[in-house]
Amino acid sequence: MSEAAPAVGALVQPTARRFRVFISYASEDYAIADAIRNRLSLALGDVFAEVNIDRRFLQPGSDFKKQIQSKLKVTDVFIIVFTGDTEKESHGYTGWEVGYFDHIMENESCFVCAPAPCDNCR
Q1: CA atoms of 4 and 36, how far apart (whole Å)
Q2: Could you tell me which residues come within 8 angstroms of residue 72 by beta carbon, excluding any fewer than 6 positions away?
Q3: Domain spans of the chain, in order of start
Q4: What architecture (CATH level 2) is domain 19-116?
Q5: Does residue 75 sit in helix, strand or coil?
Q6: Helix, coil or strand: residue 76
Q7: DSSP-assigned letter for residue 79
């Protein structure tokens, strides 16, 4: 059985696109990162935006790196919480996230100029 087509003259509502934010941080800076997540979530709302921070979306028993990659692939804005201590070992994972996101951005056109990259995306 097929679905009925919309009535002639009926308005078809476009599906709203959610704005996606990813927050990367060293474990020592979690309190700052979570405060940023909280404020962005309050300001943008759940309908308009999805604000991702690893402790809120990682599922135990699954490959963490793959879960993070899938979030980064759909991220519009990448926020790095960096408090200035470059000696922190925990910045190693943050560095990987930055590199992975940078790689994605270099290989995809922006949503404004898709499907062909604009001068800013090249």
Answers
A1: 45
A2: 22, 78, 97, 100, 101, 104
A3: 19-116
A4: 3-Layer(aba) Sandwich (3.40)
A5: coil
A6: coil
A7: E
Question: 25-84, pLDDT tens digit by residue?
Answer: 988 899 999 999 999 999 998 888 999 998 889 888 888 889 889 999 999 999 999 887
Question: Hey, is 78 helix, strand or coil?
Answer: strand
DSSP 10-68: PPPPPPPPPEEEEEEE-GGGHHHHHHHHHHHHHHHHHHHEEEEEHHHHPPTTS-HHHHH
- The answer to whether the bond into 115 is cis (omega within 30° of 0) is yes
The amino acid at 63: D
Strands 49-53 and 19-25: parallel
Q: Which of 21, 100, 96 is nearest to 53 (CA)?
A: 21
